[in-house]
Amino acid sequence: MPASGIVRKTFWPEQKPGMVQTFVPVRIMKVAEISDKKTTVRRYNAFGQYMKQLYRAPVYKVNVDAGFTCPNRDGTVATGGCIYCNNDSFRPSACTSTASLREQISKGIPYLRSRYGAEKFIVYFQPYTNTYADVGILDRLYREALDNPGVVGLAIGTRPDCVDEEKIALLETLGRDHFVLVEYGLQSIYDTTLSFINRGHDYACFKHALSITIGRGIHVGAHLILGFPTETREEMLAMADEVSRLPIEFLKIHQLQVVKETALADLYAEKPFAVFGYHEYIEMLADFLERLSPDIVLQRLFAAAPDEILIAPLWNKTRSELLRDLDAFMEQRGSYQGKAR
Ligand code: SF4
User: Fold this and answer.
1) Cα(50)–Cα(54) distance, rounded to whole angstroms?
2) How far away, in angstroms, is 132 Cα from ligand 1 center?
3) pLDDT averaged over consecutive 10-residue blocks of the chain (341 residues)?
4) Residue-range definition of the domain harbouring residue 303
5) How many domains does the chain contain in total?
6) Which end of the chain has fewer CB atoms < 10 Å from its terminal CB, N or C?
7) For ligand 1, atom 2: residue with the closest CA
8) Which CATH number fits the domain that encloses residue 127?
9) φ/ψ of residue 68, rounded to 5
10) Is position 39 within any domain?
């Protein structure tokens, strides 16, 4: 057992002494559909590039908290929520439901303009379940968000069990004149994992949500987490194959993080399980991206919970360091999205 006391399962192989990284001659993927000549050859399809190509301008997300809750917390589906869920781990401090939607947007836009040179904006309904309300309320909130100069669309994070024909019809209507992206939390394609994390829905539920969303002019994304102790490394990689067969355009993936005030933190304290080491995760990501369809656009590759609530893994890396190290690793290995397909 490692000195840390963490029981490392065999599915995360240790680096063997003398093991060398095989160098594969670089064949850079040219993402012709989303890159212009001045920019870039990239090893994976990145959301920023995609949006820049689509709007010919830098497009950034303005995160908002519209005051939704979640059926997996309020007892409608379950109580307690997903075992890893602490919404503070993914909600920026500027995004709070105490400010009105309009206030949050009008504060966020100038910040993104001056900090990043953003020119156009997607309003991102992020915390909790952002279709969990009557369709009349959703209509008002979404239209209010779109009623802002510079806002070109919406991204809506939700659960696959919180959409229905009426809500999809609303999104379809809005999608005629705007970029409308629905991001379905999936987290894993394995029902044993979904049950372990108290997700409150199964994989079939996700596929049903997809089936009623596609072909309606709505962009569709999914969210996966890599590192649940219920899955082997190969099972995690097989999710790349599976989602590549689905009609999704966007994907968020990130490492499992154990954060304070969650059921997962209690489990981890009782019986620590293996979490990804930094280099281990970089290698995992490269392998995953190689198996992923080159048509899917990546919106996220890492999670970054605030230091005050993060228990594990503790990498102490900035976002730009993470992306730089991934790029360097992929370049050194000759990796690119879809290479293994
Ligand atoms: S569905 Fe989302 S908001 Fe609800 S408990 Fe799970 S992670 Fe948290």
Assistant:
1) 6
2) 12
3) 33 31 31 38 90 96 96 94 83 65 95 96 97 98 96 98 98 98 98 98 98 98 98 98 98 98 98 97 98 97 96 96 96 96 95
4) 47-333
5) 1
6) N
7) 128
8) 3.20.20.70
9) -75, 160
10) no
